[in-house]
Specification:
Distance between the termini: 33 Å
CATH architecture: 6 Propeller
Helix content: under 10%
CATH class: Mainly Beta
Structural class: mainly beta
Shape: globular
Largest sheet: 5 strands, mixed
Oligomer: single chain
Length: 328
Amino acid sequence: MRGIRVKKAKSQWIPVFLVGIAILSCAQAGERTASRMADPAPFGPARRIGRIQDIRLTECSGLDASPDNPDLFWTVNDGGNGPYLYALGENGRNRGRVRVAGARNRDWEGLATFVHEGRSMILIADFGDNRERHDTHTLYVIEEPLLTGEKYPESATVKPAWRIRFSYPDENHDAEAVAVDSAGEKVLILTKRDAPPLLFEVDLKPVPADAPVTARKIAEVDRIPPPSLMDLAQAYGMVYSHPTGMDLSPDGRRAVVLTYKHAYLFSRGSEETWAAAFSRKPIQIPLPHPRDHTDLRQREAICFTSDGQALIVTSEGENAGMYRLDIP
């Protein structure tokens, strides 16, 4: 997403702003109390481990770890930047890029890696829709390109193994958060500008004749905290709770959702659905305030490391920081 755009039509938080300034001091005290009562963070503090070195990657809008290579991460630029997958080291070093032949980057806003029939795969979600004017969206599924050296050559190209065209069952939505449940063979899509955000799923399998499918709404994710009164007193504060990224842990038991302010961890039991998991209160994963870390100002990409023991977070913007949060 180029810059933060505020959506007014569906927001339930804007009226709070009208009273926010008047009771800001109360909000500050309340937030300090809530902080003392919060669940313990499942990950340690974010620490910068590097910066994105590829000068072409200025609008990083999705991130996930390679299932095969522990120091290889895949990401994409968002709309208008060409159909390229970018390869990074964990510290942000440039490991080349790969052109996706026959694909179009209308607004690539999400990416997920997974294993399918023993093969490492990458799903690219072309589903960004700031003005909610598109009736259909496309998910490209690609086999992870083989890396034989330190970097992919400039001539590297890959063709989609299949693609999934989908629409929503109710109305158009904007989304930036996607994950793949490979065991359940589902793609999870979390909308951005709805209040509360909506969780949809589509089948991961190829569709005959490339026919469009209809996503299924499975949950309203109403347990992500709305912007605080302190947030609303700041520029763009009303969008701090919008989901901008999502990933599932390698064991398929945890889901992390990124917002412009913090991240949130949802967990499920071995027999539970994701709809049940997302209906419960998540554990907050605190992130540095955007004003204090300008290289993490517009955070739109998060993922688990391939061993599930840490999170990697980055941002849109030139020379964006790569931050790591470890399990204590």
